[in-house]
Amino acid sequence: MNKKLMLLAAGVLSALALAALPALASADEFEAHCEVNIHICEGEITGGASTLVSDNGDTITCSAVGGTTSFTSTSTTGEASLHFTGCREHVTFFTFQCNSAGAAAGTIKTNAMTFHVINLEHTPTTKPGIKFTSVSVTFECTGFSKKTVTGSVIGEIENAAGICNTAVSTHSVDFKDNGTTGVQTWMHTETTGTTTDLIANNDAGGSYTTAAQIGTATIHWNHPVKITC
User: Binning pLDDT at 50, 70 and 90, where does residue 142 land?
Assistant: First the structure.
C-alpha cells in the first residue's frame, strides 16, 4: 500500500547556495546587511527535532537539521541548503528510515533553496520572517515509493523584537502549524497575496497534499548581520 510521506524542508528552515544579486527592498521585503566590509555573508544552520505533517496526518520526523546559507550584502534574498538526520516515517508500525538519493539512511538533503527576508504583518506592525521558495526534495523510506515535496514555506524570526536595524550573530527561525493538521501558521507576505504552501505527492501516482513544517532552525552568521526594517 502506498502512503504519502514527506519531508520538512524549510524549513526550515528546506534554503540558500548561490549568492543572490542585490535587490531593492519593497514594502514587504527587508534588506540584510553584512556588518563588516565584505560582499557576501555566510552562515551555518543548526536545529533540533523537526516534523513534516500532511493534511491527511501522514508524518515524518527528523532528530536534527544542519546546513549552510549565504546572501549578498544589501540584498533581500539569499540561498540555503539543508540536511536532516534521524528521519523516519510514522505511517507504519515499523517507522522506517527515510533518505534522499545517495544519502545515508535517515538523512534527507534539500536542493539549494532561495530565501526572502519578508514582513509577515501589515504596516505599521513589523514582524520579520523568512520565506523559502523553490523547494524541491525527493526521498524514500524503506519499502515505500519515492516522495517529492515542492513549493514554499514561511517561518517567523523568533528574536524579531531585537533584530530590526541591529546587527546580531544569530537568527532563529520558527516554523509551526496553525493548529490545523498540515496547515502552516504563516502563508502570506504581509498577510495578503499569493498563498505560500508546501505540497507533497506520491511519485507512484498518489494524490497531492498540503503539508506543514514544524521546528526551529538557527542561522549562525560568520559576521554580524543587520536586517533593515
Answer: confident
Q: Which of 104, 109, 18, 117 is nearest to 66 (CA)?
A: 109
Quick check: is 137 in a domain?
yes
53: which 3 cell numbers?
505533517
Tell me 86's DSSP state. Answer: S
Is there a domain that residue 123 lies in?
yes
User: What is the value of pTM for the model shown?
Assistant: 0.83
β-strand partners of 46: 66, 218
d(CA 118, CA 109) in angstroms, rounded, equals: 25
What is d(CA 176, CA 185) in angstroms, rounded to the nearest whole number? 6
* Whole-number Å distance between alpha carbons of 64 and 84: 6
For residue 13, being part of any structural domain is answered with no
Tally of structural domains, the chain: 1
What's the mean per-residue pLDDT of the chain? 83
